[in-house]
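Design job #97: recover the sequence.
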Protein backbone atom coordinates (compact mmCIF):
# COMPACT_ATOMS: atom_id res chain seq x y z
CA UNK A 1 0.00 0.00 0.00
CA UNK A 2 1.42 3.36 -1.06
CA UNK A 3 0.81 6.60 0.84
CA UNK A 4 1.49 10.07 -0.42
CA UNK A 5 4.41 12.02 1.05
CA UNK A 6 3.48 14.78 3.52
CA UNK A 7 3.91 17.61 0.99
CA UNK A 8 1.75 15.85 -1.61
CA UNK A 9 -0.98 15.18 1.01
CA UNK A 10 -0.96 18.85 2.01
CA UNK A 11 -1.19 19.92 -1.65
CA UNK A 12 -4.07 17.48 -2.22
CA UNK A 13 -5.87 18.80 0.87
CA UNK A 14 -5.45 22.42 -0.22
CA UNK A 15 -6.77 21.57 -3.69
CA UNK A 16 -9.77 19.86 -2.14
CA UNK A 17 -10.50 22.80 0.15
CA UNK A 18 -10.22 25.22 -2.78
CA UNK A 19 -12.63 23.11 -4.84
CA UNK A 20 -15.05 22.81 -1.90
CA UNK A 21 -15.00 26.57 -1.25
CA UNK A 22 -15.64 27.27 -4.94
CA UNK A 23 -18.56 24.82 -5.02
CA UNK A 24 -20.12 26.20 -1.83
CA UNK A 25 -19.81 29.73 -3.23
CA UNK A 26 -21.37 28.59 -6.51
CA UNK A 27 -24.30 27.22 -4.52
CA UNK A 28 -24.82 30.61 -2.85
CA UNK A 29 -23.04 30.20 0.48
CA UNK A 30 -20.82 33.02 1.71
CA UNK A 31 -17.41 31.88 2.93
CA UNK A 32 -16.59 33.66 6.20
CA UNK A 33 -13.27 32.01 6.95
CA UNK A 34 -11.14 29.03 6.07
CA UNK A 35 -8.97 26.88 8.32
CA UNK A 36 -10.42 28.16 11.58
CA UNK A 37 -8.41 26.79 14.50
CA UNK A 38 -8.86 26.95 18.23
CA UNK A 39 -7.61 24.87 21.10
CA UNK A 40 -8.96 21.39 20.50
CA UNK A 41 -10.93 22.26 17.39
CA UNK A 42 -10.77 23.13 13.74
CA UNK A 43 -13.10 23.82 10.83
CA UNK A 44 -11.92 23.75 7.24
CA UNK A 45 -14.58 26.26 6.16
CA UNK A 46 -17.05 28.46 8.04
CA UNK A 47 -19.82 29.85 5.84
CA UNK A 48 -23.25 31.45 5.89
CA UNK A 49 -26.12 29.74 4.13
CA UNK A 50 -28.77 32.40 4.51
CA UNK A 51 -29.23 32.77 8.26
CA UNK A 52 -27.54 29.43 9.01
CA UNK A 53 -23.91 29.27 10.09
CA UNK A 54 -22.29 26.24 8.44
CA UNK A 55 -19.17 24.51 9.74
CA UNK A 56 -17.60 22.36 7.06
CA UNK A 57 -15.17 19.47 7.15
CA UNK A 58 -13.57 18.86 3.75
CA UNK A 59 -12.22 15.40 2.99
CA UNK A 60 -10.25 14.89 -0.19
CA UNK A 61 -9.10 11.62 -1.70
CA UNK A 62 -7.10 10.73 -4.80
CA UNK A 63 -8.25 7.11 -4.63
CA UNK A 64 -11.03 5.19 -2.96
CA UNK A 65 -9.14 2.13 -1.75
CA UNK A 66 -9.67 3.28 1.85
CA UNK A 67 -13.35 4.07 1.35
CA UNK A 68 -15.31 7.23 0.73
CA UNK A 69 -13.88 10.46 2.14
CA UNK A 70 -16.91 10.92 4.44
CA UNK A 71 -15.98 7.68 6.21
CA UNK A 72 -12.90 9.43 7.58
CA UNK A 73 -15.05 11.87 9.59
CA UNK A 74 -15.49 9.84 12.74
CA UNK A 75 -16.55 10.80 16.24
CA UNK A 76 -13.23 12.51 17.11
CA UNK A 77 -13.24 14.69 13.99
CA UNK A 78 -16.90 15.57 14.60
CA UNK A 79 -16.08 16.68 18.14
CA UNK A 80 -13.17 18.83 16.89
CA UNK A 81 -15.53 20.52 14.41
CA UNK A 82 -18.15 21.03 17.14
CA UNK A 83 -15.50 22.56 19.44
CA UNK A 84 -14.44 24.94 16.68
CA UNK A 85 -18.09 25.93 16.16
CA UNK A 86 -18.56 26.59 19.86
CA UNK A 87 -15.40 28.69 19.98
CA UNK A 88 -16.29 30.59 16.80
CA UNK A 89 -19.77 31.44 18.09
CA UNK A 90 -18.31 32.70 21.37
CA UNK A 91 -15.45 34.62 19.71
CA UNK A 92 -17.73 36.35 17.22
CA UNK A 93 -20.50 36.94 19.78
CA UNK A 94 -23.00 35.55 17.30
CA UNK A 95 -26.64 35.91 18.35
CA UNK A 96 -27.38 32.18 18.56
CA UNK A 97 -27.82 31.54 14.82
CA UNK A 98 -28.98 28.19 13.49
CA UNK A 99 -25.90 25.99 13.01
CA UNK A 100 -25.27 23.14 10.60
CA UNK A 101 -22.39 20.70 10.19
CA UNK A 102 -21.60 19.64 6.63
CA UNK A 103 -19.02 17.37 5.04
CA UNK A 104 -17.72 18.06 1.56
CA UNK A 105 -16.21 15.07 -0.21
CA UNK A 106 -13.76 15.86 -2.98
CA UNK A 107 -12.31 13.27 -5.32
CA UNK A 108 -9.24 14.38 -7.27
CA UNK A 109 -7.94 12.07 -9.98
CA UNK A 110 -4.91 12.88 -12.10
CA UNK A 111 -4.78 16.39 -10.62
CA UNK A 112 -8.37 17.20 -11.67
CA UNK A 113 -11.50 17.37 -9.57
CA UNK A 114 -13.46 14.26 -10.53
CA UNK A 115 -16.30 14.78 -8.10
CA UNK A 116 -17.64 16.87 -5.24
CA UNK A 117 -20.46 15.87 -2.95
CA UNK A 118 -21.87 18.02 -0.17
CA UNK A 119 -23.42 16.15 2.72
CA UNK A 120 -25.64 18.69 4.47
CA UNK A 121 -26.41 18.11 8.14
CA UNK A 122 -23.84 15.31 8.11
CA UNK A 123 -24.05 14.90 11.87
CA UNK A 124 -25.41 16.40 15.06
CA UNK A 125 -22.65 16.80 17.67
CA UNK A 126 -23.09 15.37 21.14
CA UNK A 127 -23.86 17.93 23.81
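Job complete. Output follows.
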Amino acid sequence: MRTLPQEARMRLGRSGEDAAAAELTRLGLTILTRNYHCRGGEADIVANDGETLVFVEVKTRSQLRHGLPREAVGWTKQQRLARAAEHYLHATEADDPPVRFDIVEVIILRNHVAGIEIIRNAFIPET
